[in-house]
């Protein structure tokens, strides 16, 4: 684990080849999503989105928690504002929602490496990622109901990751869901030993990055678009993506390589 201090940015980035590793780095605060953390995460995602050299992303965290959700100490302090905190709360929810949507809209696939608990907006963050690798000791939870604050915004991501009744059970009961149960529900792709979480996420991201970037990025965008549409409209949208993809250089190269029984040489365009 990296050493942290007062001057450590709340989100750090390092690149391994075509994979960017974004790390939540407020372990003493259980990587809670303070406004500074949200701002830093948004900036990191914006930077990755504009970086054509990056073809996959791993979202990791320092310390025993992946992310404990919103910074409740920060929220409580703003109750002393003249409006009782209303403006700050609205801005915070908007900033958080923008970050979650940025993860979904990021051109590159995002693999979450969940090494510890992911609660409330932290569970929302994991659910917003394209793939999730979890430690066998990791747990997921939307416990807002326990403190009189129903996890409504985390429920948006959760409802798009697991079956409706499973999402409602998590939201209504607020109970910890172990990694293996989260995998059964569809919230987690793979469960590994705690020490293998980051290596497994990097391996998965590296395998994605080895594919044609243009195909993967068109595919992610197209999948998310069609998933929100009725059946006939979904097929229309997916068909347009297929045509766009077929016209790309990498599709011509990949199909030609398959026919010629050779390895393709991706140009990522």
UniProtKB/TrEMBL annotation:
One GO term of the biological process aspect: fatty acid metabolic process
Domain of life: Bacteria
InterPro entries assigned to the protein according to its UniProt record, in alphabetical order: ClpP/crotonase-like_dom_sf, Enoyl-CoA_hydra/iso, Enoyl-CoA_hydra_C, Mitochondrial_ECH-domain
Protein keywords: Fatty acid metabolism, Lipid metabolism, Transit peptide
GO molecular function, one term: hydro-lyase activity
Pfam families in UniProt: ECH_1
CDD domains tied to this protein: crotonase-like
Keyword Oxidoreductase: no
Claim: RNA-binding is one of the keywords in the record: no
Matching PANTHER family: ENOYL-COA HYDRATASE DOMAIN-CONTAINING PROTEIN 3, MITOCHONDRIAL, PTHR43602
Role noted for this protein: May play a role in fatty acid biosynthesis and insulin sensitivity.
Sequence similarity: Belongs to the enoyl-CoA hydratase/isomerase family.
Record-given protein name: Enoyl-CoA hydratase domain-containing protein 3, mitochondrial
Highest classification ranks of the organism: Bacteria, Pseudomonadati, Pseudomonadota, Alphaproteobacteria, Acetobacterales
